[in-house]
Design brief:
The protein has helices at residues 11-23, 78-88, 99-111, 124-139, 179-182, 193-203, 228-239, 259-263, 289-292, 311-323, 329-351, 377-381, 385-397, 418-435, and strands at 45-49, 52-55, 60-63, 117-121, 143-147, 160-161, 171-172, 185-188, 207-212, 242-246, 269-272, 283-287, 356-360, 363-367, 400-401, 410-411. It is α/β, with parallel strands linked by helices. The chain has a 7-stranded mixed sheet with strand order 4-12-11-10-9-5-8, sandwiched between helices. The protein starts with 10 loop residues before the first helix and ends with a helix. It binds ligand KE4.
Length: 436
């Protein structure tokens, strides 16, 4: 185990970041990696081992990002590596169908019963973009509903912030998104059942779909309040709108059957990603056969992808889906996550730091707030972000790598055991003491 109190040197990461900025916008291939949410210089990682990540300066960290969710088995799990090595000798892609695609489709339909048919794509964004086009094509309606604080990938019509009021249409949340796109998107407050009912009373029959993260994982971690998911199910059924659960993050992360199995609410379509690729580029959208049959080449809703169903990515995904079906996998993952969070809470309380946590299965959220439980976007936005930044860096100094943003969820893997939890809690004791 590493020395928890050593000062870390990150000079090689810093040099790489300098060079990266010459060739890559912001020096990163995805904004959150740039550490702008926490300050300081982003780390460049060299390799991973189980629950640990090693950076370019040979610092070893317990990893709670897990590539933003996919690495639920930890880094370089033997079963995943072996499956990739076997496929490597057979070829990297054919642009044609393979038996493995049938196998992974069958497995997804078995594990997520609401998915009767599924189409593979290569990212979560592609999955949500395609699911929305499908919902619009199936209903012949254009308007859609999303929730403030939920992120569904960089789809033009979803890069939308709340309009002036819950019953008004959204505003673009990025340059380059035409107003005409956001004029079709309503943005409601997450966990606000009343606002949803009011909108559907007014516009329900013109709404193609609701898309929601059943557990919000992109405004830190906010679970649904009782009745929230159930109400949207009733409203969509009543008005002939399609209910899309974006389970790109929660799928196979919160439970084997995803968040829909945790809360007992059945969507019409589900989007998946992350875990199903084992760390390689795989996304998917699937659901009711009568809706999915509208997708080309069977139906008139076009969708396609050169690398969809990549044999290499599917090999990794299948190996991962096999491992997570082992008896006790989620019980152990949930237990370790709860054990770690209980330890954090005890240490924050002992240090007199206002702190609370949320957890669903193997994903968690930590909040610097006096709120007993965080259930709304406004409560998330009211948290003490400067204190989170100090906590992030104190934990990093002590070899714990958290998501570099106060608005991201954290992820535990099957490789996080007693050693990793002990290292995390020792670091947290030091970190909380530094905040007093
Ligand atoms: P990708 O296109 O990044 O594969 O997936 C988009 C997406 C869709 N739906 C949900 C619920 C998601 O969480 C995501 C992506 N998640 C972020 C993490 N907050 C990816 C990290 C990043 O953007 O670099």
């Amino acid at each position: 185990m590493s020395d928890l109190n050593s000062h870390i040197s990150t000079k090689n990461s810093a040099a790489l970041f300098e060079e990266a900025q010459l060739y890559i916008p912001g020096g990163v291939n995805s904004p959150v990696r740039a550490f702008r949410g926490v300050g300081g210089t982003p780390l460049f990682f060299n390799h991973g081992e189980g629950a640990w990540l090693i950076d370019e300066d040979n610092n070893r960290y317990v990893d709670y990002v897990g590539a933003w969710g996919p690495l639920i088995l930890g880094h370089c799990h033997p079963a995943v590596i072996s499956a990739l090595q076997t496929q490597l000798t057979r070829g990297l892609g054919y642009g044609a169908s393979t038996a493995a695609e049938v196998e992974i489709a069958k497995t997804i339909c078995k594990l997520v019963p609401s998915i009767e048919k599924v189409r593979l794509v290569t990212s979560g964004t592609e999955a949500t973009m395609s699911a929305i086009r499908l919902a619009r094509g199936y209903t012949r309606r254009d308007k859609i509903v999303k929730f403030e604080g939920c992120y569904h990938g960089h789809v033009d019509g979803l890069l939308v912030k709340a309009g002036s009021g819950a019953l008004t249409l959204g505003e673009p949340d990025s340059l380059g998104v035409p107003k005409a796109y956001t004029d079709l998107t309503y943005v409601l407050p997450f966990n606000d059942i009343y606002a949803m009912k009011a909108l559907f009373a007014k516009e329900g029959d013109s709404i193609a779909c609701i898309i929601v993260e059943p557990v919000a994982g992109n405004m830190n971690l906010v679970p649904p309040v009782p009745g929230f998911l159930e109400s949207m199910r009733e409203l969509c059924t009543q008005h002939g709108s399609v209910l899309i659960f974006d389970e790109v993050m929660t799928g196979f992360r919160t439970a084997l059957g995803g968040a829909q199995s945790v809360y007992g609410v059945t969507p019409d379509l589900t989007t998946l990603g992350k875990v199903i690729g084992g760390g390689l580029p795989v996304g998917a959208f699937g659901g009711r056969a009568d809706i999915m049959n509208c997708i080309a080449p069977l139906g008139a809703v076009y969708q396609a992808g050169t690398l969809a169903g990549s044999p290499l990515a599917v090999a990794a995904g299948l190996a991962m889906l096999t491992e997570i079906q082992r008896p006790g996998f989620y019980e152990s993952l949930t237990k370790h996550t709860a054990q770690m969070l209980t330890g954090l809470q005890e240490r924050a309380d002992a240090a007199g730091i206002p702190f609370s946590t949320n957890q669903v299965g193997g994903m968690f959220g930590c909040f610097f707030t006096t709120e007993e439980e965080v259930t709304t976007f406004d409560q998330v936005m009211a948290c003490n972000v400067p204190q989170f930044k100090r906590y992030f860096h104190a934990m990093l100094e002590n070899k714990i790598y958290l998501a570099p943003s106060a608005f991201e969820a954290g992820f535990v893997s099957a490789a996080h055991g007693e050693n990793e939890i002990a290292a995390t809690l020792n670091a947290a004791e030091i970190a909380f003491a530094s905040l007093k």
